[in-house]
Automatic annotation (TrEMBL):
Keywords: Membrane, Transmembrane, Transmembrane helix. Pfam families: YvrJ (PF12841). This is YvrJ family protein. The chain crosses the membrane at residues 6-23. The lineage of its organism: Bacteria, Bacillati, Bacillota, Bacilli, Bacillales. It comes from the Bacteria.
Length: 43
């Protein structure tokens, strides 16, 4: 049973890592976009 889980780690772990990295980057960009949209009425 443990061998089955160990064999899945390289197959599943890398895509999960890439997904979390991309979501983190997109979150930062969306926050910047949201802040700039909120500042439009002030200008």
């Amino acid at each position: 049973m443990a061998e089955a889980w160990i064999s899945w780690v390289p197959d599943v772990g890398f895509p999960i890592l890439v997904t979390f990295y991309l979501l983190h980057r997109i979150e930062n960009k969306l926050e910047q976009l949201n802040n700039s949209i909120k500042s439009i009425p002030q200008t």
